[in-house]
Amino acid sequence: MPAINTKNFGKVDVEENQRIHFKAGILGFEENKDYYLIIKEDSPFIWLQSAVNESLAFVLINPYIFMPEYKLKVSASDWNLIEMDPDKEDHLVFAIVTIPGNPEEMSANLQGPVIINPKKKLGVQAISLDDQYHIKHPILPAL
């Protein structure tokens, strides 16, 4: 089993089925294309850890945990990047979490959802076509 170095967890064993390829990278980090999903038991958060840069990781959360009425509405080109039909329901959806100095102010980027095709191991950070969502949606009040 291969291992990767992470800033937050040290050396972590990973399996190839945890690897997700982002053809377009993540917004602002387009040069990093490959990440591993690291799931910690008993936590609503998932880590999206760069496969090559141990200092680059994103905290993700399923938006439906704190906003059950969330509606995913993104462009056909985003669906094409992960080779999925938007009418299928076998994709995974996450929001990138920002944790400031005061963790009670943590927020989720609902404007830029991360969508993953779990079968093909492809991901995209899409741009929501629904302008009701923000890049800093408070998480804790909704929980």
Briefly say what this structure is.
This protein is mainly β and 143 residues long. The protein has one helix spanning 76-81; strands at 3-6, 10-13, 19-22, 34-39, 45-50, 57-61, 92-98, 107-117, 122-125, 137-138. The protein has one helix and ten strands.
Measured as a percent range, the helix fraction is under 10%
Strand order of the largest sheet: 3-4-5-6-7-8-9
User: What gyration radius follows from the Cα positions, in whole Å?
Assistant: 15 Å
* Unreliable residue stretches: none
As a percent range, the share of strand residues is: 35-45%
Shape, please?
globular
Number of extended strands: 10
Largest β sheet strand count, sense and barrel closure = 7 strands, mixed, barrel
- Secondary structure tally, helices: 1
On the 0 to 100 scale, the average pLDDT is: 93
Termini separation: 36 Å
Q: What is the SS-derived class?
A: mainly beta
SSE succession? EEEEEEHEEEE
Task: Tell me what the structure shows.
- The protein is built from one helix and ten strands.
- With 143 residues, the protein is mainly beta.
Task: Please render the helix and strand layout as text.
Elements: E1 3-6, E2 10-13, E3 19-22, E4 34-39, E5 45-50, E6 57-61, H1 76-81, E7 92-98, E8 107-117, E9 122-125, E10 137-138
Parallel strand pairs: 3-9
Antiparallel strand pairs: 1-2, 3-4, 4-5, 5-6, 6-7, 7-8, 8-9, 8-10
